[in-house]
Amino acid sequence: LADPPQPVPLEVVLVSPRNPLNIGAAARAMANFGFSSLSVAAPFAPHWREARSAVGAPDLLQKAKEFPSLVEAVADCTLILGTGTVTHRKPEQPIISLPALTPLVQREVDRGGHIALVFGPEKHGLTREDLSFCHQLVEIPTDPRQPSMNLGQAVAVCLYELATHVAPPAAVEAASTVRGQGLPVDSAHLNLLAEVIEKVTLSAHYSPYSMRDANRHDLRMLLRRLSLSQRDTRRILGFFRRILHRLKG
Amino acid sequence: LADPPQPVPLEVVLVSPRNPLNIGAAARAMANFGFSSLSVAAPFAPHWREARSAVGAPDLLQKAKEFPSLVEAVADCTLILGTGTVTHRKPEQPIISLPALTPLVQREVDRGGHIALVFGPEKHGLTREDLSFCHQLVEIPTDPRQPSMNLGQAVAVCLYELATHVAPPAAVEAASTVRGQGLPVDSAHLNLLAEVIEKVTLSAHYSPYSMRDANRHDLRMLLRRLSLSQRDTRRILGFFRRILHRLKG
């Protein structure tokens, strides 16, 4: 008999799930594979109520956290993984196939990070805006003739892969060695840094105001490609605050 | 982008599935992972009709084969894999954890075999009788606090694992080398052999008649542990037919 899988510090985030049966199925897959932390971003209130009150709904569904949008749901996460297929759009961030995901997640677990695995709404998946908060896009290798998976099944397959191949956080001594490289920074601090840098670009008249949204999007994704530590983020933040103060002075 | 998974000669068999949504989900997972051969054994007629006529039901659901029981559904299969958890019963056949299944399936693919992956009814899973036709019991490693998976999700997880790790049948030359060891025997011929051996044991007064059912069950499983080739099965069959003829003569 196989040992039961160990939990890893992972948050499952459902963005605007529509079908209560899918929400229930996602929660059940989490329980099957030993994950217990579920967040829901911008749920449709009646569907969400129905899913939570379903007979036999797992405990973790009762305890699920609710957020107005994805930004808040992943604020304290350090590695945010969007899921989906890229059949119909040009991806903007690195894509990793699910069977190759283990080393990335294991590194994040070992350096004390907190991982979010994000699933979009059933119909159209994660938006470009949602994905701009993701470090990577995880793709389940499916048949090109039928690439799009049912939400509950996609959650089950991803969690099976992670529960089977990712080891729990390393023991305290080992972890502190890895952590000497610097704890990974969370999404909220990256957003704060992006905000200050944006103010600097505006103050410095870096580009036309009409470019503001596009610049914000690109900056957000650039910061997520840098793999910053908490310490480095604080340093860079101080640097840009100083510049901002000077520009305004 | 990952290459699409290649198909392997695999039959998905659902035994008495109850929920049309689960049947649909199983079919969808098959399409997602590039499998197209579905069989249903002893389905509940109205649920099965409903599943097949559902809007957007994949093509493979329309083409699914229907059988009165598992025996007929797997008659031409050479490696029959039952799925389920063994929390509440003592297993009688070898158990293999899903992540370790690849080499077994790959060997069967390479030697020209035909694999059946069998899923039981939602409520109680495969019966002892069903399992006696299986060579191995495949277990998805789940949390002991919530071991039982939803049917559609279990199908998705198993097919993901096989589509990701099992290569398609080897090229003709390579395959014929492997096949020189003898093509694997299918379930129908094992059943025929078991029948003749049973007649011999009865003719020879091997054990009391009251043991007949138990002996039949044990013999069925014993024959499945032997990994017989077609040629060896024919030889053994001839041998026992001769004995039977002599005992009766």
Structural key phrases:
alpha/beta, about 250 residues, globular, 7 strands, homodimer, 7-stranded parallel β-sheet, 11 helices
Helix segment count of chain A?
Answer: 11
- The share of residues in helices of chain A is 40-55%
Radius of gyration of chain A equals 19 Å
The ordered H/E elements of chain A are EHEHHEHEEHEHEHHHHH
Content of β-strand of chain A: 5-15%
Distance between the termini of chain A: 69 Å
Q: Which descriptor suits the 3D outline of chain A?
A: globular
Strand order of the largest sheet of chain A: 3-2-1-6-4-7-5
The major beta sheet of chain A can be summarized as: 7 strands, parallel
Most extensive interface, residues per chain?
A-B, 40 and 40 residues
* Residue windows where pLDDT falls under 50 for at least 5 positions of chain A: none
The oligomeric state is: homodimer
User: Average pLDDT of chain A, to the nearest integer?
Assistant: 89
In total, the number of strands of chain A is 7
Question: Structural class of chain A, please?
Answer: alpha/beta
Brief overview:
The first copy, chain A, is built from eleven helices and seven strands. Chain A is of the alpha/beta class. The mean pLDDT of chain A is 89.
List the helices and strands and how they pair.
The structure is a homodimer of 249-residue chains.
Chain A: E1 10-15, H1 20-32, E2 37-41, H2 45-52, H3 59-62, E3 65-67, H4 70-73, E4 79-83, E5 95-97, H5 102-110, E6 115-119, H6 128-131, E7 136-139, H7 151-165, H8 172-179, H9 187-203, H10 212-225, H11 230-248
Parallel strand pairs in A: 1-2, 1-6, 2-3, 4-6, 4-7, 5-7
Helix pairs in contact in A: 1-2, 1-7, 9-10, 9-11
